[in-house]
Amino acid sequence: MVPKLRGDGSGDGPPPKTTRRDTSFKLDMLDALLLNSLIKPADFVVAFAIIQHRNSENGECYPGMDRIADITGFSTRYVQKCVNKLRRVKWLTSRRPNRQNSNRYEFDETFAHVHLRHKKRILKEREASRLSAETNGSSRQTQPPTGIIDRPARRTVAPPNTLIEHLKRDAG
Length: 172
Prior knowledge:
Blueprint: H1 20-35, H2 41-51, H3 65-72, H4 76-88, E1 92-95, E2 104-107, H5 109-135, H6 160-171
Antiparallel strand pairs: 1-2
Helix pairs in contact: 1-2, 1-5, 2-3, 2-4, 3-4
């Protein structure tokens, strides 16, 4: 007989009940985090691990640093850096009632709503430009698609030996 898995993977008991609204909140929050250019991939992974522990009744998350480190595969110190970054950019608030309990985290819903509204506006603009291009008979886009995430372009610099080889080849 195969035991039913609980949410924490211990194998004893049914999974915890989550409501459709709570699941929707989690997905919206993760979607909004992806849209923020200040959030790096490691920060997102830590936020994902924290939001997995969200209590549907009060909206708080209680995972300890060791638990987050186990889930993500990061060191405890690196998890602390990521949590501090999420707090610094105002996505996450945390408090620790006493030294005996783990931190209590809450995600700020206002940031999520702002980013999701921005995403909807961008998608509507893209759809309108696509429709106008179709009605004008133009099969190609007049403008390149605008990105949702506004990140500065990274400049790649070739290693010195490759650069010298290219210069010699171009000169000769």
